[in-house]
Design brief:
The structure is a single chain. Helices cover 0% and strands 22% of the residues. It has a domain of 52 residues. The radius of gyration is 44 Å and the shape is rod-shaped. The protein is built from no helices and 7 strands. With 168 residues, it is mostly beta strands. The strands form 3 sheets. A 3-stranded antiparallel β-sheet has the order 1-7-2, with no helix packed on it.
Length: 168
């Protein structure tokens, strides 16, 4: 019987143990197979697939771009001030006098006019406004925080194969 596979050839097998005439290679373990269009035989990556979901692939890091922005849309409820909430104040006006003692409507104050003030009113008390509206998260920027944090990275789906080398 003629053997067409050269000795030392390495192949992947989708089975539990090496076939007769082959030896399992155990130096490559817990990795995903990657198909490349260039030269094969390379390795890479930083985490084992059996770890499943991981919370850090590169350790703690800091984002240099803005975390994120918020848009706010709020409105103040209406409120009518009571006299006690108004600042203390008075009103002043000028009234003219006439020889008859009566003011003619629309007449201008002339000589003999007088300044008249109302008494002070208002108590300078406090008041409040209710707010209504919405605050929504979003906007532009990179999600994250200003300090160290982690990201959740999931492992790709995989199948278990063994790598075997053709015996001499």
């Amino acid at each position: 019987m003629e053997d067409f596979i050269p000795n030392g050839t390495v192949m992947a097998f989708f089975q539990s143990s090496a076939p007769t005439g082959w030896t399992q290679v155990t130096s490559q373990n817990n990795k995903v197979l990657r198909v490349v269009s260039g030269t094969g035989g390379g390795t890479g990556g930083t985490w084992a697939t059996s770890s499943g979901v991981t919370t850090s692939s590169g350790g703690a890091h800091t984002h240099s771009t803005p975390s994120h922005s918020h848009s706010h849309s709020l409105s103040a409820g209406s409120h009518t001030l009571s006299t006690s909430q108004m600042p203390s104040h008075n009103h002043t006006w000028t009234r003219g006098t006439s020889t008859s003692g009566n003011m003619t409507p629309g007449s201008e104050a002339g000589s003999g006019s007088a300044s008249v003030s109302t008494s002070h009113t208002g108590g300078s008390g406090s008041h409040s406004h209710s707010l209504s509206g919405s605050i929504s998260s979003g906007g532009s920027g990179t999600s994250g925080s200003a300090g160290a944090h982690t990201h959740t990275i999931t492992a790709p789906q995989y199948i278990d194969v063994i790598i075997c080398s053709k015996d001499a």
